[in-house]
Amino acid sequence: MTSSASIALHTDPSLFPDLEVYAVAGNPIGHSKSPLIHQRFAEQAQQAMHYGRLQPDLNGFAKAAKAFFAAGGKGMNVTVPFKLDAQEFADEVSARARLAGAVNTLWMRDGKIYGDNTDGAGLVRDLLAQGIALEQARILLIGAGGAARGVIGPLLEQSPKCLVIANRSSAKADELVKLFANLAASQEVALESRTLADLEDVSKTPYPFDVVINATAAGLSGESPLTTKAVSNIFTPSSFAYDMVYGKTTVFMQQALQRGARISDGLGMLVEQAADAFLLWRGAKLASCIDPRAVLAKLRS
Ligand code: ATR
Question: Ligand 1 centroid vs 283 CA: distance in angstroms?
Answer without folding.
Answer: 35
